[in-house]
Amino acid sequence: TGTLRQLSFGVGMDLTELVSAGAAVHYAFGTRKEVMSMRDELVGIGEDDESYRDETEFDLSGVNFTLGLRGVITERVEVGFAWESQLNATGNIETSRMDDAGDPIAPYDGEYRYPNAYRLGLAFRPRTDPRTVFSLEGEYKPWSEFMDSETPRTDEVDQLEDTIDIRTGVEHTFYNGMPLS
Length: 181
Description:
By secondary structure, this protein is mostly beta strands. The protein is built from no helices and 11 strands. The protein starts with a strand and ends with a strand. 6% of the residues are buried.
């Protein structure tokens, strides 16, 4: 369980009448908590008790940024491209695990490195009255580049799969000015 939150600050500007650019800085922070437990039901039948409960809490934070470009193809068609850099989130890991001697493991540093994200978008505004806007967005994330200091993914079998997300949207504005998405 846990939550990774982001605070962002960005700016955008028109470079020409047809091209705009933008940039944003993101500060990510949060805590990830993992609980693993096992109850050995065979205790008392000559077996060793192998029951355990392990809690690990990872308090992490990091900074990354996004750069974007928007271009006007015609008065009704716009395209955009954005690149989000890798988020390198580091922090302190506290665990209730015991080492081989039965002593608690001292807190130690951990790291997640999330992959880059690449986004491409298209907006189409046909001549309709009232106004309607159609949009299409694609995002590619190479999750195979994700790195975790707790679970090194050195073998190709252990790596995560890259993803492509496609999103579509329609926004219709009624005669009274109220939009519906």
